[in-house]
Amino acid sequence: TGHLNHFTFYRKGKDTEMLYIIGGRVLTMSGEIWEKGYICIEEGKIKDLGAMKNGAPFPLQSGSGMEVINASGSIVMPGLIEAHCHMGITEEKKGMEGDDCNETVDPITPYLRAIDAINPMDAAFDDAVRAGITGAMIGPGSANVVGGSFAFVKTHGRNIDKLVIKNPAAMKVAFGENPKVNYGGQGKSPATRMAIAAMLREELFKAFQYREKKKKGDLKEPDFKYECWLPVLEGEIPLKAHVHRADDILTAIRIAREYRLKMTLDHCSEGHLIAREVAESGFPAIVGPDLASRNKIEVQNMAFKTVGILNKAGVKTAITTDHPVSLIQSLPICAGMAAKAGMEEMEALKSITIYPAQICGVDHRIGSLEKGKDADIVIFNGNPLEVATKAMCTLINGEIAYADQSFSLPTSQKQL
User: Fold this and answer.
1) How does pLDDT run across 343-390, given as a tens digit for each residue?
2) Residue 79 carries which DSSP code?
3) What are the CA-CA distances from residue 158 to residues 125, 155, 253 (Å)?
4) N- to C-terminal Cα distance for the chain?
5) In whole angstroms, how far apart are CA 212 and each of 27, 200, 233, 385?
């Protein structure tokens, strides 16, 4: 892949209609790879793209209303995607005052919405953009059996409502140590894995009852605590299951099958020990944060090899930092470590682009470079799986959200 040899931004007037990225090695993540490709962007969307043949595939004429990024010597690919994190809801540098991740007074809180606590002013958002991460699934932590709903957002902007791609995007449920520790320590239920499963089953049972009553018109008025379950029960969004240990993974699968629900297996730290069973379940796995320490009993078998083993077994995989457990900007490094542990490089790249987009239900807009999709694009000066590689330019909705200091914007138009 080499280093960035030539990277220049050409600007053409204030009435620019189109932006072209030309000359880079384009990895579409939808199958095509062009050693020298072009991407045409108009009104925040990808209008056209392809391989360059015998020069530019478009006219460079004065007054044509174009801007051109020459990305020769670089890699151009879709913006990276974090499939499970807590940035902006567990803010950096702010301690308790910025920690809104877990409501640890009631183990069943499906009606909580991450969107009401995500602060895009959190420094992690800027770190994400600088790393080429353009989209993230953000939600509550794992202290509760049911924690509330996640939202999928873009990573650049100040108004969270304008960053949303999908909300609600998933319903958080948690198995294993975290609910046990948080409530067993208070002398409350759940204090065992049995109680976690039983409480989730009871909640789902009541939610299904509520849906049936609503369908029959037997409700006097909507119930705020159960309306939030309807997108899950209708198959519009999945359960997002916090599972580390093999037995917790299998319990989550058992319950999702009982109620015929969609689900993602988040963390899935011992998934490699039961890879066949995970593959047979059909549920995707969001694996990580493998860059973090093994600071709990249930993560003692956590390893970078897990995601590759699951991927080879036929599981759709995404890689997560679980920010702030490990830092958001380490996402491409985590993918590189997975490749080092045996995962195929292209599958590692897909696990931080198109696969998380598919798993999170936003692949109709992002995750790959295709006509009609959002122009969320990152330009790297080398292989993003290598630690020294830098994101030189990050575009979100066709606009430059970040440019490296060596990335210049000359005022002269003579270069065109």
Assistant:
1) 999 999 999 999 999 999 999 999 999 999 999 999 999 999 999 999
2) P
3) 10, 9, 38
4) 27
5) 47, 18, 11, 49
Cis bond upstream, residue 289 (ω within 30) = yes
Give the total residue count for the chain. 416
DSSP state of 410: -
The whole-angstrom separation of Cα 349 and Cα 27 is: 10
Q: Is 400 exposed, middle or buried (0-12, 13-18, 19+ CB in 10 A)?
A: middle
Q: Where does 188-338 show beta strands of DSSP type E?
A: 239-243, 263-267, 285-287, 317-319
Q: Identity (one letter) of the amino acid at 24?
A: G
The single residue listed with the structure tokens 């791609």 is 165
In this predicted model, what pLDDT tens digit does every residue of 98-136 receive, in sequence order?
999 999 999 999 999 999 999 999 999 999 999 999 999
Instruction: Please give the single-letter amino acid code of residue 121.
Output: M
As given in the structure block, the two tokens for residue 392 are: 């030189």
For the full predicted model, state whether its pTM sits above 0.85.
yes
**C-alpha–C-alpha distance, residues 132 and 394, integer Å:** 6
Token pair, residue 134, equals 């353009």
Which spans in 131-192 are helix H? 160-163, 177-184
